[in-house]
Amino acid sequence: MAKRSDPADAAPAKKSKAAAPKKIPFSSVLDELDDLGPTTRLMFGTTAVYVGPRIMLALRDRGTVDDGVWVATTAEHHASLRRELPSLRSIAVFGPGESGWQVIPVAGETFEDEVLRVCAMVRKADPRVGKTPKPKKR
After folding, report:
1. What is the Cα 82 distance to its own chain's centre?
2. Is 0.70 surpassed by the pTM of this model?
């Protein structure tokens, strides 16, 4: 067990932005997936949500058009997912064209309903949602 020092003995701490914990955007997603034991990692300005080794979603709220819940998927599943999640679209920050990642934009009128639907898909292990990341090269 680590020994705690008396705060009175310590020099005044410098405040830094790095010391403050970051707020996870759309943290209700983690509540919805809690029974699966999700883990999070920072990734490209988002909070990536993993269930086991698979990345499922990414949560982003930075004041841009791509804010919302990003869905890890592949192009072959876009059409079927859009039937269930009508606001789903490619992420603009990746440039023109389709990307594997799709976003449920926070600005959409059906954002909350669609986020609940995609969380239900994750809970049911829908094969259209989630990717196993490639191993990192050493």
Report:
1. 19
2. yes
Question: What does each C-alpha distance from 59 to 12, 28, 55, 68, 98 come to in angstroms?
Answer: 35, 10, 12, 6, 19
CA distance 35 to 78: 27
> What is the number of helices (H) and of strands (E) in the chain?
3, 6
Residue tagged 């509540």 (tokens): 31
Place of tokens 């976003």: 103
Mean pLDDT of successive 10-residue stretches along the chain, which has 138 residues: 37 44 87 97 92 97 95 96 96 86 95 98 98 84
Q: Are 128 and 81 a contacting pair, CB within 8 Å?
A: yes
